[in-house]
Amino acid sequence: MTPLQTPPRPAHSAARTVVDAMDAPGPQVWDDMTVEVALSVMAGARSRYLLVRDDDGRCTGLIGQAQLTVVRDNSAYTDQVRLRDVFGDDSGPFTSPMATIAEAERTMRHGRLGALPVIDEHGCAVGVLALSR
User: Fold this and answer.
1) Please, what sign has the CA dihedral across residues 44, 4, 69, 49?
2) How far is C-alpha 102 from the chain's CA centre?
3) CA neighbor of 87 nearest in space, from 29, 27, 23, 24
4) Integer Cα distance of 31 and 63 in angstroms
5) What is the pLDDT of residues 36-69, one digit of tens each?
6) pTM for the complete prediction?
7) Chain centroid to CA 70: how far?
8) What is the pLDDT of residue 121?
Protein backbone atom coordinates (compact mmCIF):
# COMPACT_ATOMS: atom_id res chain seq x y z
CA MET A 1 0.00 0.00 0.00
CA THR A 2 1.23 3.47 -0.83
CA PRO A 3 1.88 5.55 2.29
CA LEU A 4 -0.47 8.41 3.09
CA GLN A 5 0.66 11.97 2.52
CA THR A 6 1.03 13.35 6.00
CA PRO A 7 2.53 16.54 7.33
CA PRO A 8 5.51 16.20 9.68
CA ARG A 9 4.42 15.67 13.27
CA PRO A 10 6.31 15.63 16.53
CA ALA A 11 7.63 12.20 17.50
CA HIS A 12 5.62 12.19 20.74
CA SER A 13 2.23 12.03 18.99
CA ALA A 14 1.21 8.44 19.64
CA ALA A 15 -2.00 7.85 17.70
CA ARG A 16 -2.34 10.31 14.86
CA THR A 17 -5.86 10.86 13.62
CA VAL A 18 -7.33 11.38 10.17
CA VAL A 19 -7.66 15.12 10.80
CA ASP A 20 -3.84 15.25 10.93
CA ALA A 21 -3.52 13.84 7.39
CA MET A 22 -6.66 14.77 5.47
CA ASP A 23 -6.83 17.22 2.57
CA ALA A 24 -9.47 19.89 2.06
CA PRO A 25 -12.73 18.40 0.75
CA GLY A 26 -12.29 19.69 -2.80
CA PRO A 27 -15.10 19.85 -5.35
CA GLN A 28 -18.51 18.77 -4.10
CA VAL A 29 -21.47 18.12 -6.38
CA TRP A 30 -25.11 17.09 -5.99
CA ASP A 31 -26.12 13.51 -6.74
CA ASP A 32 -28.60 14.64 -9.41
CA MET A 33 -25.75 15.86 -11.64
CA THR A 34 -25.27 13.89 -14.85
CA VAL A 35 -22.12 11.88 -15.47
CA GLU A 36 -21.13 14.16 -18.37
CA VAL A 37 -21.42 17.31 -16.28
CA ALA A 38 -19.53 15.64 -13.41
CA LEU A 39 -16.68 14.76 -15.77
CA SER A 40 -16.61 18.39 -16.95
CA VAL A 41 -16.54 19.70 -13.37
CA MET A 42 -13.75 17.27 -12.54
CA ALA A 43 -11.72 18.37 -15.57
CA GLY A 44 -12.29 22.05 -14.81
CA ALA A 45 -11.28 21.61 -11.18
CA ARG A 46 -8.32 19.42 -12.16
CA SER A 47 -9.38 16.98 -9.51
CA ARG A 48 -9.02 13.19 -9.40
CA TYR A 49 -12.35 12.83 -7.63
CA LEU A 50 -15.59 14.55 -6.63
CA LEU A 51 -17.45 14.36 -3.35
CA VAL A 52 -21.12 13.64 -4.02
CA ARG A 53 -23.90 15.06 -1.80
CA ASP A 54 -27.58 14.22 -1.47
CA ASP A 55 -30.50 16.68 -1.29
CA ASP A 56 -29.80 17.24 2.42
CA GLY A 57 -26.15 18.12 1.82
CA ARG A 58 -24.84 14.88 3.30
CA CYS A 59 -21.92 13.18 1.61
CA THR A 60 -23.04 10.03 -0.20
CA GLY A 61 -19.64 9.08 -1.53
CA LEU A 62 -16.61 9.89 -3.55
CA ILE A 63 -16.39 9.25 -7.27
CA GLY A 64 -13.31 9.23 -9.45
CA GLN A 65 -12.70 9.91 -13.11
CA ALA A 66 -11.96 6.26 -13.88
CA GLN A 67 -15.27 5.18 -12.33
CA LEU A 68 -17.21 7.80 -14.32
CA THR A 69 -15.43 6.88 -17.54
CA VAL A 70 -16.39 3.22 -17.11
CA VAL A 71 -20.04 4.26 -16.68
CA ARG A 72 -19.92 6.57 -19.70
CA ASP A 73 -18.27 3.93 -21.91
CA ASN A 74 -20.89 1.29 -21.07
CA SER A 75 -23.19 0.39 -23.97
CA ALA A 76 -26.27 1.04 -21.80
CA TYR A 77 -25.15 4.61 -21.01
CA THR A 78 -27.33 7.59 -21.88
CA ASP A 79 -26.68 11.25 -21.22
CA GLN A 80 -29.44 11.14 -18.59
CA VAL A 81 -27.47 8.94 -16.14
CA ARG A 82 -27.06 10.78 -12.86
CA LEU A 83 -24.50 10.29 -10.14
CA ARG A 84 -27.17 8.87 -7.81
CA ASP A 85 -27.73 6.15 -10.44
CA VAL A 86 -24.03 5.27 -10.28
CA PHE A 87 -24.07 4.95 -6.49
CA GLY A 88 -27.50 3.39 -6.12
CA ASP A 89 -28.22 2.60 -2.47
CA ASP A 90 -24.55 1.92 -1.77
CA SER A 91 -23.04 4.96 -0.08
CA GLY A 92 -19.69 5.13 1.60
CA PRO A 93 -17.34 4.03 2.93
CA PHE A 94 -16.44 7.02 5.06
CA THR A 95 -14.20 7.82 7.97
CA SER A 96 -14.37 10.21 10.89
CA PRO A 97 -11.82 12.98 11.42
CA MET A 98 -11.16 11.44 14.84
CA ALA A 99 -10.45 7.92 13.53
CA THR A 100 -6.83 6.86 13.70
CA ILE A 101 -4.83 6.79 10.50
CA ALA A 102 -4.32 3.05 11.00
CA GLU A 103 -8.12 2.51 11.07
CA ALA A 104 -8.59 4.56 7.92
CA GLU A 105 -5.75 2.71 6.16
CA ARG A 106 -7.44 -0.62 6.98
CA THR A 107 -10.70 0.64 5.48
CA MET A 108 -8.89 1.85 2.37
CA ARG A 109 -6.93 -1.37 2.00
CA HIS A 110 -10.04 -3.53 2.47
CA GLY A 111 -12.00 -1.54 -0.14
CA ARG A 112 -8.99 -1.02 -2.43
CA LEU A 113 -9.60 2.73 -2.25
CA GLY A 114 -7.24 5.50 -3.27
CA ALA A 115 -9.19 8.12 -1.32
CA LEU A 116 -11.73 8.15 1.49
CA PRO A 117 -14.25 10.89 2.37
CA VAL A 118 -13.95 12.28 5.88
CA ILE A 119 -17.34 13.23 7.29
CA ASP A 120 -18.53 14.94 10.46
CA GLU A 121 -21.24 13.75 12.84
CA HIS A 122 -23.92 15.22 10.51
CA GLY A 123 -22.68 13.36 7.44
CA CYS A 124 -21.15 16.43 5.80
CA ALA A 125 -17.76 16.16 4.09
CA VAL A 126 -14.96 17.92 5.97
CA GLY A 127 -12.06 16.49 4.01
CA VAL A 128 -10.59 13.64 2.01
CA LEU A 129 -7.92 11.20 3.04
CA ALA A 130 -5.93 10.25 -0.04
CA LEU A 131 -3.04 7.93 -0.76
CA SER A 132 0.04 9.62 -2.08
CA ARG A 133 0.80 9.10 -5.75
Assistant:
1) negative
2) 18
3) 29
4) 11
5) 999 999 999 999 899 999 999 999 999 999 999 9
6) 0.80
7) 17
8) 95
